[in-house]
Write a structure and sequence with these properties.
Elements (H helix, E strand, L loop, with lengths): L2 H6 L16 E4 L20 E6 L2 E5 L2 E2 L14
Antiparallel strand pairs: 1-2, 2-3, 3-4
Amino acid sequence: MTSLPAALLGLKDRGTIRQGMRAYLVLFDAGKIIDRSTFKEPGLIAGGVNRVFVNGTEVWRDEAVTGNKPGRVLRHSPS
């Protein structure tokens, strides 16, 4: 789900779960995921996501952001 996009973007330290890689994890119950976005409101957040970690730091818990901001914007320009 994530290794191919990471490889296509040249992100060598992302996309898989193993030692030395950056930890980006989304924990969810597949039976409880709800897509709330619509054409009029495409930015609505999905329901059912329990926790999200960026660089090993929790950024989402119990339907709300934690306030932690361990990530950074990645910009990709075609070569």
